[in-house]
Design brief:
Layout lengths: L2 E8 L5 H15 L5 E8 L6 E8 L2 H11 L3 H9 L5 E5 L8 H5 L1
Antiparallel strand pairs: 1-3, 1-4, 2-3
Helix pairs in contact: 1-3
């Protein structure tokens, strides 16, 4: 069962660029992890320090294994130091298919 993991980070305005940079580094590393499928990093247009990562994995077990192995990595330590509040995570599964807007426009 594929799972979706949402990570939400809030960085202060002063730490916004550093927070985005370390987030990109973390997710570059994730590409090498067993069970990783893909990810998307979204930055809030109204709050540059608010970043959401939407990632997809082959299983919850893969997510938990990577989280345990990577939790002490310097990139995670830096992200936590830069964060204005504890970073949030939740795991879910897709319940509806993505809509194909190109077919709707026809």
């Amino acid at each position: 069962m594929n799972v979706t993991v949402l990570w939400e980070s809030h960085f202060s305005l002063a730490s916004a660029e550093g927070g985005l940079e370390v987030t990109r580094k973390i997710w570059q590393d994730m590409r090498q992890c067993p069970g990783y499928v893909d990810h998307e990093i979204v930055r809030d247009l109204d709050d540059a320090g608010h970043v959401l990562v939407i990632s997809h994995w082959t299983s919850r077990e893969a997510v938990e294994t990577v989280k345990k192995r990577y939790s002490g990595h310097p990139n995670i330590v830096l992200a936590n130091q830069l964060a204005a509040e504890p970073r949030g995570r939740w795991i879910g599964m897709q319940v509806d298919e993505k809509s194909d807007t190109s077919k709707q426009a026809a």
